[in-house]
Amino acid sequence: MNDHSLIIIGGGPAGMAAALAAKKAGIEDLLILERDSHLGGILNQCIHNGFGLHTFKEELTGPEYAERYANMVKQEQIPYELDTMVLSVEKLKDSNKKAVTVISSKRGVQTLYAEAVILAMGCRERPRGALNIPGYRPQGVYTAGTAQKLINLEGAKIGKEVVILGSGDIGLIMARRMTLEGAHVAAVAELMPYSSGLKRNIVQCLDDYNIPLLLSHTVVDIKGKEKLEGVYIAKVDEKKQPIEETKEYYPCDTLLLSCGLIPENELSLDGGVEIDPRTNGAYVDESLETSVEGVFSCGNVLHVHDLVDFVSEESARAGESAARYILSGKRSQGKTIEVKTGYGVRYTVPCRINVENAGELTHIRFRVSGVYKNVSIVIKSGDKELLRKKSMILVPSEMVDLLLKKSMLKESGEEMTVFIEEA
Asked: Is the pTM of this model over 0.90?
């Protein structure tokens, strides 16, 4: 059968949470499409613990967290198709239906139709080509996630003397993992004056193993033509430019890159979804609906999260919203508030709020653009202050989640601004 009420693209934690919530909200005819051979997405290679404290109130490994959700999907008899690549998503001109073209060994190339689509494709790592590091392309340079997959899923040994560029969470976790595999991690270099990973990962993965974190440092040259021989690391100035006299050579056979994640939005772009350049994810409203009616986005394809528990919570809201859209058959109308960013705030999710469609509490999630101490988070509409919340410290690596009451939304004008106010 090619016609469905709801199609979910992606069978990772976001896709599964969205499917379960939609099923609970009354949608029976739904389908998950996953390009990998297993449900669970990236969690299957994340064998470290720390997952599930919010969702399941216990500490799980990535595969355990994925298995919990996969078992719930199977118990609810939600259909899913593995090894299935989605080629395109488009809204039909003469109806509200969406055409989803897929390719798989089971179907060949086929077009499926749905009343609503949830985008839950996750994200990918920023590759070396995007970093502009001089040097050849020798054996021994990996993204941190690729190294994680090779070691954890395929049992490969990839190096003995390691340097890591970037202090994202995957890089921090791989510093520990490489150490446990018997390698020596010489240093983790970070371009910014602060780490882009969670504080707990800095403590548990670097401090506990005496691995130095070099803030305001970067790799400026890679040595070796066939095989990696070493890298030069230099301190950077306030403009992020290397300071030549600080350049230091680190002999190594492995360089891991942990320099950020990019939401996988090629399908979204091709389908006409408007993309926010600040997040590389879709512009969405409070229902997580994109600029294309009946197409919703959630999880790391929308904006990169720090915790998978937040992915699951957000994606469940996307599933509920898609179910509401399908059952009502239309997008809600009424007063819309544009959410703007002010001082210290990089982006917000959502970017707009439909007051009529909003629940009693509306989440506004954002990241800050630097490290701020003893500040207030403020939301204002014109001269009217809607919310003020004090915070001892805000860092870019930790997402902030605010809750706005519906009464606050009713008091707002057509725009509200979220900003940081320093004492």
From this structure: yes
* Mean model confidence pLDDT for the chain: 94
Instruction: Give me the pLDDT at residue 130, please.
Output: 58
Position of tokens 């005496």? 210
Q: With CA atoms as reference, report the closest residue to 191 among 167, 153, 218.
A: 218
**What is the percent of the chain where pLDDT is above 70?**
98
First to last CA, the chain: 61
Question: Which residue is associated with the tokens 């021989």?
Answer: 229
Task: Measure Cα distances from 33 to 74, 82, 123, 192, 358 in Å.
Answer: 14, 6, 16, 38, 29
What pLDDT does 293 receive? Answer: 93
Joined together, the tokens standing for residue 357 give 């469609």
Query: Is the C-alpha dihedral spanning 28, 34, 60, 321 positive or negative?
Result: negative
Phi-psi region of 380 (alpha: psi -120 to 50; beta: other; left: phi over 0): beta
Residues 6+ apart with CB under 8 A from 393: 371, 372, 373, 374
pLDDT per residue over 78-108, tens digit each?
Answer: 999 999 999 999 999 888 899 999 999 999 9
Q: Which domains does the chain have, with CATH numbers?
A: 1-125+261-331 (3.50.50.60), 127-259 (3.50.50.60), 333-423 (no CATH)
For residue 221 the two structure tokens come to 């040259």
128-186 tens-digit pLDDT: 665 678 888 899 999 999 999 999 999 999 999 999 999 999 999 999 999 999 999 99
Q: Nearest 5°: CA angle at 334, between 333 and 335?
A: 140
Strands (E), 71-208: 80-81, 85-91, 98-104, 108-119, 123-125, 141-143, 161-165, 184-190
141-143 and 345-349 beta bridge pairing: unpaired
Take residue 230 and report the two structure tokens written for it. Answer: 């070493």
Residue 47: pLDDT over 70: yes
Give 215's contacts (C-beta < 8 A, 6+ positions apart).
Answer: 190, 192, 193, 194, 195
